[in-house]
Each structure stands twice: as C-alpha cells, then as structure tokens.
What does this fold into?
Amino acid sequence: MNSEEFRQRGKEMVDYIADYLDTIEERRVTPAIEPGYLRRLVPDEAPQKPEQWEDIMKDVEDKIMPGVTHWQHPRFHAYFPAGDSYPSLLGEMLGNGLGCIGFSWAASPACTELETIVLDWLGKMVGLPEQFLSFSENSKGGGVIQGSASECVFVSMLAARAHTIRQLKKQHPFVEEGVLLSKMMAYCSKEAHSCVEKAAMMAFVKLRILEPDENQSLRGATLQQVMQEDRAMGLVPFYVETTLGTTSCCSFDNLAEIGPVCEEFGAWLHVDGAYAGSSFICPELRGPMRGIEYASSFNFNPNKFMLTHFDCSLMWVRDRFKLTQALVVDPLYLQHSYSEKSIDYRHWGIPLSRRFRALKIWFVVRSFGIEGLQKYIRDHCRLARRFEAHVRKEPRFEVASPVHLGLVCFRLRGTNDINQKLLSSINASGKLHMVPASLNDKYVIRFCVCRQTATEEDIDYAWEVIRQFATDVQETKPE
Ligand code: PLP
It folds into this structure.
C-alpha cells in the first residue's frame, strides 16, 4: 500500500468506523456463536500472495463482526465502560502514524515530555497532592502511563519489595534476600481485584486477604490487627493494596483509616482507582480520596471512565526513585547524554518499548475540556441513580449494595439460583449484556452505565427488559 492508496483506504476506514458506531444498535450486543466459530471461516494457512483490500474488508463484516461483543452498544451494561471517543481514536491514530518508540527521552523527546505534562494535568484534575506531581517544587514524585491497572499494581509491589529488602539488608547484611522475602507480608481486601493476587504470585510475595466491613470497605482497625499479629510472629508487613471503586460493587476502602496504619508499619500503600479514579475530576465526588496523602502510589484508568481508548492506565508515585531503583538496568545502547536532565520511562515499568499514548489523553482533555469530562461523569452517575430508582420502586427486587458512580448491583429477592437464571436468560437473548458478582455470598447482577452517550431511554429500556425476564423466570416452574 502506498501513501495514495492509504489516503483512500484511510478515509474509507474512518467512514466504516463512523457507520459502525452510528448503526451499532442494529447489531446484537453479544455474538450468537460457539467457541471455534472463526476457525471454520478462516483458512488454516496465511496467504502466499497479497490479497485485495476489498476482500479483507468484506471478511471483516462477514467473519469478524459476527464474533464481536459490541462494548459501545447502548445495551452493553457489563464490567465497566471501555473508554471511547472520537478525539481519543484520532489521537491513537496519530500516535501510531508517528510510529515512534519512546523508551527514553532521547528516543523521542516529545513522547516523554508530553507524558510527564499530561500526567501532571490529570494529577491536578483528580486532586492528587503536589507530592505526586513531577513539576512541583521539592517533589520526588511523578506519573507514568502503564498498560493496565494490573501492571500498576504489580510494579508498585515490586518497588515496595525492593525497597523493603534494601532496608532489611541494612539490618541483617548476612541474611539471604530469599530468606528476607519469605518474611514479608502484603495485604488487600477480599474485594480487591484479582490482579493483586496475581501480582503477589508473580512477585513471590505472601498475601493476606482481609474481610471488608458490611459495605465492602476495608477498615483501618482490621488491617492494624492483622499487621500486629504478623509482626508479633516475626513477619514484616510491607505492602497494602487498597481500592477506590471495587470491581464487584464500586465500594471504597477507607484510606483515611488505613493510611496512618501503613505509616505506623512503614508499609507501602498502593491505591487502585481503576474505574472510580476518573470520577475525582468532579470535586463533589472526591470524598473517598480522603487520606490519599498517605499513599505511596495511585493508579486509575482513563480507558475505563474517561473516554480514552485502551490501553491507558495512569500511575503516580510519591517517590519515583523507589520505583526506578526496583527496575533500572542500563545497557550502553540505551544510554544518552541527557539522562541526568530528563526522564527515561523505561525505568518506570516493565516494557522497554512504549507507544505515544500521551497523545490520545492530550486530545481527549483538550477536546472535552475538564467541564466536558465532568459532564460525562455526572451524566453516568445520574443515569445509574435513575436505574436504582426503578429497582427500588419494585418490591420483588432489591438494591444489593450502596450505589456509587455508574454501577448498580441489584437482585431479585430470593435465591442465588433464580438470579443466576435471570441473568443467563437475559444474556442469552442478546437484548442486554450484564455480568454478575458475589456480595456477602449473594449472587447479584451488576448494571453499569457504559455507553458514552447513554440516555434515559436506554436505562428505561434496560429496566423493561429485566422486568419482563424476571416475570418469565418467576413464572417458570422449577423442574
Ligand atoms: N482494578 C480494578 C478495581 C478493576 O476494576 C480492574 C478491572 O476492571 C482492574 C484493576 C484490572 O484492570 P486492567 O484490565 O487495566 O488490568
């Protein structure tokens, strides 16, 4: 393909995407296919000779689309939103068009510098204390774009692990690092995302999973008690993972209580706000941030609730040297003469190669403005409250946990079994898509406002579908 053909095909592709999004409602939200469907439609071998563009695009519609789950569909209410907006899409396109790999400042200075600048913008937008910002006087902190919240959690755990081993080594210089590691304990709530367990597994770190309170919030007293017990047994509490906006029900751990406990024990406090973090752009939603000044690191995903495409997880640290000390390796071929005066983001994460992801954030923030992003978040919160009001009006249903942001957990009063049947019949129909969660051993259905331009009609339509299926399920006699 030469540049002339690219101009033509590129314009056609923009039309294809715009048509897709404009007419997405005509498609079924989830595919009606079985595993292995594509294997039967696509050849086993790659083509020897170039194929016609028209043939490739025809296969997109005929073979790929039937297997796509349409996350931007107005009937998609599963998981959390998959960030999407035209400015973000165009920012992605430009970033890929430039095709640079910004692992160091020298490898593409604008790539690094824009990343530092937008991370400071976003840090200020969500109300992070100055200690997390790069361009703040006397700050050792700073922000970086990672690929996912899972990476942020893992990398923060690695930084805490390396720091603690260094400290312990000073006290016990002749003890093997592996022995020191075997004494170290990390903590999180039962409601933390499974990526914490995965991080602990990969970092060879012991993890204690703690009971949250009845509102699914991890409390300071619970943490204090187990840390004391562990210390009394000769263990070293070194890392606490907390969540603002849990995956099951968008609950918030109590940072204001947990922070001082972490300080007392010298433990690294990581705060994962994967979904809810974006909502702190609205000052009235910042209540759960109380205590954030105790955090050693914080992350949130604009690719969930800030209209930006995956991948885009932002991470801030209070002390960037603690992060880089865990991750620096410096071969000659990557060194450059400005290392002392600039940031090399390859030392802030796992991959060497890095895409120009700051561009899409810059496009989104400038195109919507802070006010546009606030409006989007407030609209989603308002629509979730509308859905909650529907649930509360009908006595056969119950709201299963306090409603936060765009997520409502609800259930039919009755057994887990009937709720499971309700959700499977709705999902099988392709009329809506939602996923379940387990709260206090109860099977609940999560309804999340996902679409960028979700309307009151979308919420009312979804509620009607749910009511009808509930009646069907309740009227079906058990076998
Ligand atoms: N943390 C929380 C609270 C989440 O809700 C999720 C995913 O929904 C994750 C972490 C994992 O995110 P990622 O896919 O970016 O690793």
The chain has 14 helices and eleven strands. The CA atoms of residues 7 and 13 lie 10 Å apart. The pocket of pyridoxal-5'-phosphate is lined by residues 80, 148-150, 193, 195, 243, 245-247, 272, 274-275, 301, 313 (CB under 6 Å). Residues 358-393 form the longest helix (36 residues).
